[in-house]
Amino acid sequence: MKVLVTVASKHGATAEIGKVIQQTITAAGHQAHLNEPGKVTDLSPYDAVVLGSAVYAGNWRPSARKFATKHTDELHAMPLWVFSSGPLGPEEEVTDTYMGPVIDKHVEALDPVEHKVFSGKLEQSDLNLSERMIIRVVNAPYGDYRDKNEIVTWAKSIADYLTDME
Length: 166
Ligand SMILES: Cc1cc2nc3c(=O)[nH]c(=O)nc-3n(C[C@H](O)[C@H](O)[C@H](O)COP(=O)(O)O)c2cc1C
Description:
alpha/beta; Rossmann fold; six-stranded mixed beta sheet; two-stranded antiparallel ribbon; about 40% helix; globular; binds flavin mononucleotide
């Protein structure tokens, strides 16, 4: 099956998650292509889509939101998986409140097979001054909290689902 993996990232951490998903789905025997949401013009070559976004201030990146709005009808007609990446800190200290109601609304409108939340990465040297100030105010922890095994496991479940559809 042909799969579009399209990911909105600001500082690169979510793009790296997208790359792992694309590689895992490809290794499982499908053709997965990676592209940024703003660069995708046509979904007709694809049988399925994985849409991901980094989370900033409780919302997806603008390009993911635009993609979701522009392609809602086409996405309803094919298998769609969605992921959000943002929560920081050890897993036991992270709650869904990092995501918030705005993202719930996007997910509701898209009605994907699944919405997965992956922890994120925060590197002080990547951030601009205002981002550093926000991080100081909310006291978010710096570090890379992404779990590659969890990402690979999720991508394999997508590949299996698509194989079963063939
Ligand atoms: C200014 C700022 C605001 C953020 N807001 C949120 C948020 O509301 N919810 C969340 O889960 N993560 C939030 N994060 C964490 C990012 O989503 C996380 O660092 C993510 O891995 C960044 O992905 P990227 O490198 O692809 O941009 C925020 C990070 C920054 C710097």
